[in-house]
Each structure stands twice: as structure tokens, then as C-alpha cells.
TrEMBL record, chain A:
InterPro entries: GDYXXLXY. This is GDYXXLXY domain-containing protein. Pfam families: GDYXXLXY.
Automatic annotation (TrEMBL), chain B:
Keywords: Membrane, Transmembrane, Transmembrane helix. The keyword Aminoacyl-tRNA synthetase does not apply. The keyword Membrane applies. The chain crosses the membrane at residues 35-62, 68-89, 96-115, 121-140, 147-163, 169-187, 199-222, 242-262, 274-292, 312-336, 348-369, 375-392. Residues 12-148 form the DUF2157 domain. This is Membrane protein.
Length: 185, 411
């Protein structure tokens, strides 16, 4: 038990009050900036379409997202371009090229350092999850798709192949812009 | 001493003439009874329930909300929490005010995460969440609040964990912000709770680095003992000692593990960093620690460093196990002697527990190998224990005899 506490401290001086307001304002601006980065990525980013399958639609009953299994999540080890053998959890640059037609991009190579791109190619960043004897497991950070309330995915019973439209911003962020079901496959 | 105890006992003190009634009244006035907090808590609990119901409504309909509505909700609650916090702080209600500011800080991070999720946005480095740590630090300094500083340490731990596990890289900026920013706050305004939280937070940062870099785990003890040395240099003794707790526990567990598993050379091999680099770094930290201890007059805690003796350079096998056990015994003994000198009951208990722990390890370790050596070892341990107990008891009696003045009446 301590002796009686001193009375409450006086209100902070005006400079501190101003500083606190600035701090809160900066936080609000920052959150708005994150939202702005989302719009800017759509507007300025390179468009890439990726083929994927939803892993398990039943999770939609309890959560807001489905896990997407990208076709580009498993690549042959022969496509690895790096000075040393790939290690799990290493961050990598995946060079993608459109295969022509409306279809999805194909992996050209997986690089340890950022590669130069030819016109029409795009670089998506990712991480190595597993190194198998012949293949390489990759993760792009885009595996969780938060399904909007109006999406047809919410009506599906069985998983159907999807085309995931991704935009890759020049400053390195990426976002899923839309997910379409591939009809007639 | 609690107020209740004083209330019930003090009339007897007056009756026995220890204090006068006037003195009793003055003492009662000096320690006013704690205000009944239950009534003040009711509005808080009520608003908490309302907030929870609002939260569940929002969570249930989150997917149906358009992005602008989500953004407005998040920013609205962020601003509301900060505004409420500043309002209560200005009215002098520091606990509630800082609590609300802390809530605002948590909401800031939640907003960053949920807005990124709304736009399905991924970043490939930690810069997005680093702003959270920076905001926590700035708020802790602006409010000079140790609570917010401790919260920032937790946020830093979460951010670094995500960075190493999710992004596969280490955020040196986060570690530096915690060590430098919160560390400086702790240096200027030492506090027991913040010391412990900060020390554990920094150890966590160090452990994540060791795991990510696949470094020998013994390298962990260089930053850990730097935290320890900072505790030595800290002018406030209690805060310094509190900061030294976590590194010491880590070092003790490590020594215990070495005693238990060090016999196999494979394990010891995992621990051996390059001799010169490791010993050089450890020596530098030791020098810093000794300097701090000397400056602040705490050289009595120097035997803590016994736990850091790099026994793992010894060849694996019985020599290593026995050497580690000897070190554990010596450390426990040093704690006991120190506790006895300072007449600190808690330290005495700790020392005894450490001693018994070392004996248990010795028992498990040595009953598996050759029996003769073990019995000899226990003989030495038992003689040590008996000798120590005899010495401590004798010293205790002498100290007590010296403390009681010769002509004082017997109790």
C-alpha cells in the first residue's frame, strides 16, 4: 500500500497536444495510403492472369476466404536460375510470360535476383516453400482469396478451375483484382 | 502491510501502549482505504459489452461491406479510440486514457492489415507493418508511457515474427527500433514490468535472427548478454535486475541442457561457433558488464557469468557433462552466498532451488554411466551441501547475534 498518490498531472502543454494530433493524423493518412496503394496497383500495375483451383470450398462456411492452388505454385527444378541451390523460405522472383490467347501466364524461370524482363513479361515475387528432387514448391502471398459476397464461388459445390487476375505494381506490391471461373473446361 | 491488517491490529497496539490513539488516527489518515473500484468499473464493463456486440455485428457482415465502408469503420474506431483516450487523459483519468490510446494503437495495426486484405494487396517487405512499430514508439514517447512502450515491444515481436516466418527476411529496423527506442525510454524511466517485457522482447528478436540465419544457437547469447550488461549499466537497481532475469533464465536453461545432452558430441558440435569470434564477442560483452557492475557497485552479481562459461568447446562426453555440473553447482552456491550476505529470503529460496535442480540433473545424468564415479560425485555434492548448510547456519547465528544489542530484552 503506497501513501496517497499525487493528484493527476496537469493537462499536456499545447505543443504536446499538437504533436499527439499530428501523430493520430499521420496514422489515418497512412491507412488511407494503404488503400490508395490498392487502387494505384490496379491502375498502374502490370496485368497477369494465373490459373488456379480453389483448394476447399467448404471453408467458406466458416471463413471469408478460400485457399487458391496456383498452377505456378509447382515448377520444375530445371527452371531455377540462381547461384546456389534454392532453400526453403528463400524469397524469389518468378518471371512470367503470357502463353498467348486469353489464357494464363506460364512460368519462364525462377530467379534468386530480380531478372530483366522482355516486353509482355512480368515478375511476380514469391517464396520457396519446398525443394523436391525434381520440382520446386512456391508461394506467392496471394493464396488467400477473400471472396466477395456476390462472387459465384459462394454458390459452387465442387471446385472449378479459376483464372486469377493479378496486378503487379512497379514498386513491388501485387493484388488480386478479380477471380473468374473458366467456363467450358 | 495491508490496510485491513492495520485496522484489526492497531487497537491492540494502542492498548499495549506501542502507539497513542492520536498516532493511530494519523496513521489511518496517511493510508486512506482504497476506493471501491466496482462502481467505477460498471460503465467500463458496460461499454465493453456494447463494443463487443458492435464488433460481432461488423465481423459477421464484413464480407458484404463495400471497401469504403470498411475503411470508414476502421478509421472511425481508430479516431474514436484516440479521441476518447485524449479526453480521459485531459480529465486526469490516466489509466483509462492510456488504455484507450493503446486500443487506438492496436486498431492502427489492425487497420493496416484489414485494408491490405480488403484490396487483396500483398507487400513483399515489412515496410507496411514497420509503420506500426514506429507509431507505437512515437506514442510511447509523446505520452511518456511505459504501458505504451511495453505494447510497442509486443507489436515489434509480432511484426518480426511475421517478417521472419512469412517473408523469410529479418527486419533489422524493427530490432533496432526496439533496442534503441524503447531501450532509451527504459534507460530514462526504469520500471520493473517494462524491464521484463523489453528484455523478453529483445531475446525474442535475437532468437528469431538465430533461427533465420541458421546460426549456431550459442550466438544467441551475445545479444542476450548485451541485454544483461544493459541491466548492469542501468542506474536503477531494481529495473536493471529485472532486465537481467530473462537472459539469466535463458543462460541457465542452456547450461542445464548442456549438462543433460552435452555428452553426445553431435549436440555439442551444434553449439561450437568459431572460437576466436565467439569468445571475442562474449569477452567484449563481459567487459561491458563488469564495467557496469563496477560503476554501480554490483560486483557481487559477477558469478552470474559462470553460466556463460563456454564449456561446449570441451570434447563431448563425460568431461563436458561433469564440467557443466560443476559450473551449475558453483552458480547455485554463488547465488546462495549472495542471498545470505544480503539477507534476501527470495534469493535464498532461488539459490536452494538452483542447488536442488543441479543435484537432480547430476542424479539423472550420472546414474546412467559408471556407478563408482557417480557415487563419488554425490558424496562430493552431499559434503558440499552439508558444508554449505553448516557455514550458512553458523553465519546466520553470528549475524543475528550481532544484530541484537547486548542489553535488549529477550523477545
Amino acid at each position: 500500500m503506497a501513501p496517497t498518490q499525487a493528484p493527476a498531472p496537469p493537462a499536456p502543454p499545447r505543443r504536446t497536444a499538437l504533436l499527439l494530433r499530428l501523430l493520430v493524423g499521420a496514422q489515418v493518412l497512412y491507412v488511407l495510403g494503404v488503400a490508395g496503394a490498392g487502387y494505384a496497383t490496379t491502375a498502374l500495375g502490370k496485368a497477369v492472369a494465373l490459373a488456379a483451383m480453389p483448394a476447399d470450398l467448404t471453408t467458406l462456411k466458416t471463413t471469408d476466404f478460400v485457399r487458391l492452388r496456383y498452377a505456378a505454385a509447382t515448377v520444375p527444378l530445371a527452371q531455377w536460375r540462381g547461384p546456389a541451390a534454392p532453400r526453403a523460405r528463400q524469397s524469389v522472383y518468378v518471371l512470367l510470360a503470357p502463353t498467348g490467347g486469353p489464357a494464363e501466364a506460364a512460368v519462364v524461370g525462377v530467379f534468386a535476383e530480380e531478372p530483366a524482363t522482355a516486353p509482355g513479361q512480368a515478375v511476380l515475387r514469391g517464396w520457396v516453400t519446398d525443394v523436391f528432387p525434381r520440382t520446386l514448391g512456391l508461394r506467392y502471398g496471394l493464396e488467400r482469396y477473400y471472396v466477395p459476397a456476390a462472387s459465384p464461388l459462394r454458390q459452387d459445390r465442387a471446385p472449378r478451375p479459376l483464372r486469377v487476375l493479378v496486378r503487379i505494381a512497379p514498386w513491388g506490391q501485387a493484388r488480386i483484382v478479380a477471380v473468374e471461373e473458366i467456363v467450358g473446361k | 502491510m495491508s490496510r485491513k491488517f492495520f485496522d484489526t491490529e492497531s487497537p491492540a497496539w494502542v492498548a499495549e501502549g506501542l502507539i497513542t490513539e492520536a498516532q493511530r488516527q494519523r496513521l489511518l489518515a496517511r493510508y486512506p482505504p482504497d476506493a471501491v473500484p466496482a462502481v467505477g468499473l460498471l460503465p467500463v464493463l458496460g461499454s465493453l459489452l456494447v463494443a463487443l456486440s458492435a464488433l460481432s455485428v461488423v465481423a459477421a457482415n464484413w464480407a458484404a461491406l463495400p471497401p469504403w465502408a470498411r475503411l470508414a469503420l476502421l478509421l472511425g474506431s481508430l479516431l474514436g479510440a484516440y479521441a476518447g483516450g485524449h479526453y480521459f487523459l485531459q480529465r486526469g483519468n490516466r489509466g483509462l486514457g492510456r488504455g484507450l490510446v493503446g486500443l487506438g494503437l492496436v486498431l492502427f495495426g489492425v487497420s493496416i492489415i484489414l485494408v491490405s486484405q480488403t484490396y487483396q494487396l500483398v507487400g513483399y517487405d515489412i515496410s507496411g507493418l514497420l509503420a506500426w512499430v514506429v507509431a507505437g514508439m512515437a506514442l510511447a514517447y509523446a505520452h511518456r508511457s511505459r504501458l505504451l512502450a511495453a505494447l510497442t515491444v509486443l507489436i515489434g515481436a509480432a511484426v518480426q515474427t511475421y517478417c521472419t516466418q512469412g517473408l523469410g527476411s529479418y527486419s533489422y529496423a524493427t530490432a533496432a527500433l526496439l533496442a534503441g527506442g524503447v531501450g532509451y525510454l527504459w534507460w530514462r524511466r526504469p520500471d520493473g514490468l517494462l524491464s521484463t517485457v523489453l528484455a523478453i522482447g529483445l531475446l525474442w528478436q535475437a532468437a528469431l535472427w538465430v533461427a533465420l540465419a541458421h546460426a549456431k544457437i550459442t550466438w544467441f547469447f551475445i545479444p542476450a548478454m548485451l541485454v544483461y550488461a544493459a541491466g548492469d549499466l542501468q542506474p536503477g537497481r531494481a529495473a536493471g535486475r529485472a532486465a537481467q532475469g530473462p537472459p539469466l533464465v535463458a543462460a541457465y536453461l542452456f547450461a542445464l541442457g548442456l549438462a543433460l545432452f552435452g555428452e553426445t558430441d553431435a549436440y555439442a558440435g551444434l553449439l561450437r561457433p568459431p572460437v576466436l569470434a565467439y569468445l571475442g564477442a562474449l569477452g567484449a560483452v563481459l567487459a561491458l558488464s563488469v564495467l557496469g557492475k563496477k560503476q554501480r557497485g554490483r560486483l557481487d552479481t559477477l558469478p552470474d557469468w559462470l553460466l556463460l562459461l563456454p564449456g561446449f568447446y570441451l570434447p563431448g562426453g563425460l568431461p563436458l557433462a561433469v564440467a557443466t555440473l560443476v559450473v551449475l553447482y558453483a552458480h547455485a552456491g554463488s547465488v546462495l552466498v549472495r542471498a545470505h550476505r544480503s539477507q534476501n529470503a527470495e534469493q535464498l529460496t532461488l539459490g536452494t532451488v538452483l542447488f536442488v535442480g543441479a543435484t537432480m540433473v547430476a542424479f539423472f545424468k550420472l546414474t546412467w554411466g559408471a556407478f563408482i564415479n557417480k557415487s563419488l560425485f554425490f558424496l562430493i555434492g552431499g559434503v558440499l551441501l552439508l558444508g554449505l548448510s553448516w557455514y550458512l547456519r553458523r553465519r546466520n547465528a553470528r549475524v543475528l547475534a550481532a544484530a541484537v544489542p547486548p542489553n535488549a530484552p529477550a523477545p
